[in-house]
Design brief:
The complex is a heterodimer of chains A (326) and B (280). Chain A contains 14 helices and 14 strands. By secondary structure, chain A is an alpha/beta fold. The N terminus of chain A is likely disordered. Chain B starts with 11 loop residues before the first helix and ends with a helix. The chains are: A alpha/beta (326), B alpha/beta (280). The complex binds thiamine diphosphate and magnesium ion. Magnesium ion binds next to loops of chain B.
């Protein structure tokens, strides 16, 4: 396949650094952006310690607006700041950002097409012990349904840096979903995120895993195992979920018998939904969706929760093997 | 058209006659479209006219002019009022008013900032305008731009929790470039506000949230102008004008009638209404 991008060398190119939370990378990048650009402002809803906008707040108190525990007002205020020519980054937990303020996002961000960057942390099940009330498993579906919205889920801290810089330059509404837990580095060191472009590690002749967020790392591990067992399995990091990289997806669909989507999100309406919608209309091929199965999460250690919900390397491997056993 | 500067029109007589024209335009649009919100457009007409024509600086030829004062119609269903004012101010030709709510018209059922230049932000889902007004004010403050922000809300609208979130924010950040108006017509869709979900004591609530509160007769041009001046002079806190109004004001058979919240006049009603306004 044409796109086996440095498959052999990729291991070497990936940072050997210790795992790092995407939210930490966000906090640092936002601060850097603040130093470079005076039009960058930030908002939070009493979670700046957790979302890491606190770093920006400390250095730029005049450009930081804590709105208190009032997510709807935060989104509206962000829209106003955007309309006054600022580039607002508004952050809180993904559940509250997308759920509590959905109608605000719809009207004054998307319909009004304001240049608001909604960067939410604590997406997904790996929120852990706080439990279901705090685990956003529907946020991507909620954001993806909105016209004008761009939806991005970075795979690791390095990609997050690149994503935050890219969305600061992009004009228009963006939702970036970050996580709480530390995640290993998966993208090559020299990788630069391009909005709307998937990163292809390898396109498999048999199966391809289209993954986002923390599932990219597991997808890569699963692909290694499967390829050793004779099932040529590709991995695609679909970090921009909207607009979907249709060109890459079409190539993937045309060259494989099976696509597996993997995301830390409900199988309803997220990456899996997006891939199914496109593939079924343009190049029908079997798609198996790995994600939470239309259910709420619960409290627990993040790894235990991932295992409980089948968000594991093992489950990806089993899903693909089962398909080829038939 | 050139820049319309602040304080351009202070003559009460002149503002009153503009308000009459605006009311007729509203009724014309609504009759023409056959649907839309009559009561709340008429109740806020005097305050909106006073804000636009006595206080605000703006340039219809350059709707994005940076020094302009900003206006947000948070009660977006009063779009006909806003459109009538914008036509009067020269943002678009008067004939466009015939296309209210028609397919592909810039005059959407509720204001759309992407379809009509001069609209600052799209509204229609109640309770959101004040937050946006705050954000604009904070952004302008960072740029040391002294432009002022006006935001009209309905009284029923203030039942939305977000309004009070925004009320806190405005006071917390001492947003004194903001002047909000509550169009206190005491009616909403399902009946009198005090029956549906009481909001009294309105004055004390806003005061308790840290606002400078001014009560006015929302149909007395002189009182309105005085209040707008007082708002401009008030520093260190936001101002809200509680405008006691009559829903459907200016047309006797619409006044204080809950059923005329979202119903357009018939042809006959229109003719009668215009006569009343002209004679009033
Ligand atoms: C969030 C939201 N809920 C419901 C509505 C439907 N609605 C439109 S107008 C209205 C009543 C508004 O009453 P008020 O704010 O007092 O306005 P006015 O009397 O000035 O027309 C309602 C409930 C809406 N537009 N937005
Ligand atoms: Mg009312």
């Amino acid at each position: 396949m044409g796109d086996t991008t440095q498959a052999g060398e990729e291991q070497k190119q990936i940072s050997q650094k210790m795992p790092k939370a995407t939210r930490d990378a966000y906090g640092e990048t936002l601060l850097e952006l603040g130093r470079k650009r005076s039009d960058i402002v930030a908002l939070d809803a009493d979670l700046s310690c957790s979302t890491k906008t606190g770093k920006f707040a400390k250095e730029f108190p005049d450009r930081f607006f804590n709105i208190g525990i009032a997510e709807q007002d935060m989104v509206g205020t962000a829209a106003g700041l955007a309309l006054a020519g600022k580039v607002p980054f508004a952050s809180t937990f993904a559940v509250f950002e997308t759920g509590r303020a959905w109608d605000q996002i719809r009207l004054v961000v998307c319909y009004s097409n304001t240049n608001v960057k909604l960067v939410a942390t604590h997406g997904g099940i790996t929120v852990g012990e706080d439990g279901a009330s705090h685990q956003a498993l529907e946020d991507i579906a909620l954001m993806r349904a909105l016209p004008n919205m761009t939806v991005i889920v970075p795979a690791d801290a390095a990609e997050t840096v690149s994503v935050i810089n890219a969305v600061a330059d992009y004009k228009g509404p963006v939702y970036v979903r970050l996580g709480r837990a530390k995640v290993p580095y998966v993208v090559p060191d020299d990788y630069q995120f391009t909005l709307g472009k998937a990163f292809v590690f390898h396109i498999g002749k048999d199966a391809n895993i289209v993954a986002a967020g923390i599932m990219v790392d597991m997808a890569k591990k699963a692909a290694e195992i499967l390829s050793r067992e004779g099932i040529d399995t590709g991995v695609i990091n679909m970090s921009t979920i909207k607009p979907l990289d249709e060109e890459t997806l079409l190539r993937v669909a045309e060259s494989s018998k099976l696509i597996v989507t993997a995301e830390e999100h409900s199988i309803v309406g997220g990456l899996g939904g997006a891939v199914c919608e496109f593939v079924s209309e343009n190049c029908p091929v079997t798609v198996k969706r790995i994600g939470t199965l239309d259910t709420f999460g619960c409290s627990g250690d993040p790894d235990a929760l991932l295992a409980l919900h089948g968000l594991t390397t093992g489950n990806i491997v089993d899903t693909i093997k089962a398909f080829f056993k038939k | 058209m050139s820049v319309i500067t602040k304080g351009k029109i202070t003559d009460i007589q002149e503002l009153t006659s503009i308000a009459k024209r605006i009311r007729i335009k509203i009724l014309h649009m609504l009759t023409q479209s056959g649907s839309g919100h009559t009561g709340g457009s008429l109740s806020a007409a005097d305050v909106a006219v006073a804000i636009y024509f006595s206080k605000m600086k703006f340039n219809p030829d350059n709707p994005k002019w940076e020094e302009r004062d900003r206006f947000i119609m948070s009660k977006g269903h009063a779009a006909p009022l806003l459109y009538a004012i914008m036509a009067e101010a020269g943002y678009f030709p008067g004939e466009t008013l015939d296309y209210l709510r028609k397919i592909e018209s810039p005059l959407q059922g509720h204001p759309c900032c992407k379809k009509l230049p001069g609209i600052e932000v799209s509204t229609g889902s109640l309770g959101q305008g004040l937050s946006v007004a705050n954000g604009m004010a904070l952004g302008l403050r960072l740029d040391k731009n002294p432009a002022r922000i006006f935001c009209i809300m309905g009284d029923g609208e203030t039942q939305e929790g977000q309004v009070w979130e925004a009320a806190m924010t405005a006071a917390h950040y001492k947003i004194d470039t903001l002047c909000a108006v509550v169009d206190n017509n005491e009616l909403q869709i399902d009946g009198p506000v005090e029956e549906v979900m009481g909001i009294e004591p309105v004055h004390d609530k806003w005061a308790a949230f840290g606002w400078h509160v001014i009560d006015v007769d929302g149909h007395d041009m002189e009182e309105i102008l005085r209040a707008l001046d007082e708002a401009e002079r008030t520093k260190g806190k936001p101002t809200v004008i509680i405008a006691k109004t009559t829903k459907g004001k200016g047309v006797s058979f619409f006044e204080d009638k809950v059923e005329y919240h979202g119903v357009a006049p018939s042809r006959e009603e229109f003719d009668k209404a215009v006569k009343e306004i002209n004679n009033g």
